[in-house]
Amino acid sequence: NAGVTQTPKFQVLKTGQSMTLQCAQDMNHEYMSWYRQDPGMGLRLIHYSVGAGITDQGEVPNGYNVSRSTTEDFPLRLLSAAPSQTSVYFCASSYSGDRPNTEAFFGQGTRLTVV
Amino acid sequence: GNSVTQMEGPVTLSEEAFLTINCTYTATGYPSLFWYVQYPGEGLQLLLKATKADDKGSNKGFEATYRKETTSFHLEKGSVQVSDSAVYFCALRPSGGYQKVTFGIGTKLQVIP
Q1: Residue numbers in A near B97 (CB within 8 A)
Q2: Could you report the per-residue pLDDT of B88-106, keeping only the tens digit for each?
Q3: Interstrand relation of B86-93 and B32-38 (parallel, antiparallel or unpaired)
Q4: Interface contact A103-B34, CB threshold 8 A
Q5: CB contact under 8 A, A90 and B44
Q6: Residue A71 region, left (φ>0) first, then alpha (ψ -120 to 50), else beta?
Q7: A100 vs B43: CB contact, 8 Å cut-off?
Q8: Which of A91, A100, B28, B38 is most buried (CB neighbours < 10 A)?
Q9: Mean pLDDT of B73-84
Q10: How confident is the model at residue B107 (pLDDT cuts 50, 70, 90)?
Q11: How many CB atoms lie under 10 A from the CB of residue A39?
Q12: CA-based nearest residue in chain B for residue A90
């Protein structure tokens, strides 16, 4: 199994540029989420989805958009990149619903720098 | 709301030393508890978990016991190795339908030869 696949692994953007971070999972997980990891801040939830067509905001959603058209894919869009969005981004997936006691699977991360 | 508290570190130990990383939580009901490990340049991966009170999770020589009375899930290892150097995250997932996972801030462990 490939698990959770994130692309790209590294990206440098100029302020104001847009881009999409890709995330795909092959485990048929209902739940997918995006986190950002910053020094001293731990993991902060950006957006999440409990199934195709359903998304919701996490702790730090401003500046990011998501959509979930299929169970497998959950892209994260930066519409107008800002230096404050320099971070490492992780996508995660897990089962939900009547199987609450299962762990999250994480992608390898995308290291984004906005200059 | 739910919360997880752990020391940020860094924790520096000599090889073969005993490791304890404390984790306490706040949540209603009976959440599932997890420890994740993040090696340099990688994503998080599950280290161990416990789903009910008094359960002990174990993996790769690491152990943690779900203590409902003290709302704790401390991570221990009897003899650390250089290869254990990583960041360790404690996390909880509330019971009942789908609930979001809450992570601690992560504790960086450095093991020196």
Answers
A1: 96-98, 100
A2: 999 998 876 566 888 999 9
A3: antiparallel
A4: yes
A5: yes
A6: alpha
A7: no
A8: A91
A9: 97
A10: very high
A11: 9
A12: B43
What's the mean per-residue pLDDT of chain B? 93
Of B41, B94, B101, the CB nearest to A104: B101
Distance from C-alpha of B103 to C-alpha of A37, rounded to nearest angstrom = 11
* Each residue's pLDDT tens digit, A54-80: 999 999 999 999 999 999 999 999 999
Burial letters B32-53, b for 16+ CB under 10 A, else e: bbbbbbbeeeebbebbbbbbee
Q: Is the dihedral of CA A32, A95, A28, A90 positive or negative?
A: positive
For residue A37, give the 3-state DSSP assignment: strand
A39 touches chain B (CB under 8 A): no
Q: Let me know: does A107 contact A7? Beta carbons within 8 Å.
A: no
- Write the single-letter amino acid at A6: Q
Assigned token pair, B9 = 């570190």
Separation in Å, CA of B2 to nearest CA in chain A:
13
